[in-house]
Automatic annotation (TrEMBL):
Name of the featured protein: ABC transporter
UniProt keyword list: ATP-binding, Nucleotide-binding, Transport
Molecular-function GO terms, alphabetical: ATP binding; ATP hydrolysis activity
Superkingdom of this protein's organism: Bacteria
Residues in ABC transporter domain copies: 20-257
């Protein structure tokens, strides 16, 4: 058994329902020419994702993120453990009807237009033409693609960012309750990443549960309710960002001048180090700065106390002696 730090039991809502649950999931691939070698890519993975959550699965290359996603989607069979999606065992047809998926390197039919591609995807779910006529324009709006372009332009003429948005529309064609995105921001420029983030946030506001893999930790930090870190097939920690990193509105301050008595109500754990006051800010930064001007003191620095997700991520890997990806 690997040791998983379950950092938080705080759910999006206290009575939230588990939508994804796994118990000791594991996968050993058979490799080599004679398939006589074994590669353990997932180990004893137990986690839960709750209704309406945006859940980010992080990990270095080769950590086993895609393997876990593919097991949940019924594409890869686990060699150990079990999992339940939307209250039913994975792989069931009824479950697949309610799940959306955008693979990491999605294949698009170059000579179809976006509209034709979405019609094709809708056909796989046997959606009626009436529903298709309503849903395709809605999805194009959601992902920010122009309807005329979607009807005319073949996918081979689309940029990477536009293709990714078509891929997201495809993943939503069946109006799923649960959506899996494998590296949705990969290879996108800052604007493309912003657009994908906005789409994910808009899906969240519709109450959908989103499970995605990512290397882009700044994006994860902005949109996820909870995260898990996977490395070399082992789950290292699961928890909410606030419980993992601390509150985002806590600041460390350094002040020059003023007196300890005047500053004490504002600075928790105040200490004098080399003629300046150090500690944690109590209260609103704007009000604090206004108060400083009254006490003849000068603010030298005001920094968020919480570490970035990237710092935490690197630290977690380092603690376990993982210094390179696979
Ligand atoms: N079909 C397969 N057959 C054999 N080995 C595989 C197969 N798929 C994945 N692996 C191996 O399993 C391990 C985990 O791979 P996986 O793709 O799940 O990692 P990942 O975390 O998604 O990586 P990345 O971030 O690079 O996409 C890797 O060592 C990979 O080479």
């Amino acid at each position: 058994m690997n040791s998983v730090t379950e950092i938080s039991k705080n759910l999006t809502t206290p009575e939230a329902m588990p939508i994804v649950q796994t118990w000791n999931l594991g996968k050993v691939y058979r490799t080599g020419f004679w398939l006589n070698q074994q590669l353990r890519s997932l180990n004893d993975c137990s986690l839960s994702v709750y209704q309406g959550e945006t859940f980010g699965l992080l990990g270095p290359n080769g950590a086993g993120k895609t393997t876990l996603l593919k097991i949940l989607l019924g594409i890869v069979r686990p060699t150990q453990g079990r999992a339940v999606l939307l209250g039913q065992p994975i792989g069931r047809q009824e479950v697949k009807q309610k799940v959306g998926y955008l693979p990491e390197n999605a294949y698009f039919y170059d000579y179809l237009t976006a509209w034709e591609f979405l019609e094709f995807a809708a056909g796989l779910f046997q959606l009626s033409t009436t529903i298709q006529k309503q849903r395709i324009p809605q999805l194009l709006d959601l992902v920010g693609l122009d309807q005329k372009t979607a009807r005319k332009k073949q996918l081979r003429q689309y940029s990477k960012g536009m293709l990714q948005r078509v891929g997201m529309a495809q993943a939503l064609i069946n109006d799923p309750d649960l959506v899996f995105f494998d590296e949705p921001m990969s290879g996108l420029d800052p604007l493309g990443r912003y657009q994908v983030r906005e789409i994910i946030l808009s899906l969240k506001s519709q109450g959908k549960t989103i499970f995605f893999n990512s290397h882009v930790l700044t994006d994860v930090e902005q949109i996820c309710d909870r995260i898990a870190i996977l490395a070399r097939g082992n789950l290292l920690c699961v928890g909410s960002l606030e419980d993992i990193l601390g509150r985002s509105d806590v600041y460390q301050v350094i002040v020059k001048g003023g007196t300890q008595e005047a500053l004490e109500p504002w600075i928790l754990g105040i200490k004098n180090i080399e003629n300046s006051w150090h500690g944690q800010l109590e209260g609103d930064p704007q009000e604090f700065m206004a108060a400083l001007s009254q006490m003849d003191a000068q603010l030298l620095s005001l920094n968020r106390a919480r570490a970035s997700l990237e710092e935490y991520f690197i630290e977690q890997l380092r603690e376990r002696g993982i210094t390179s990806s696979q």
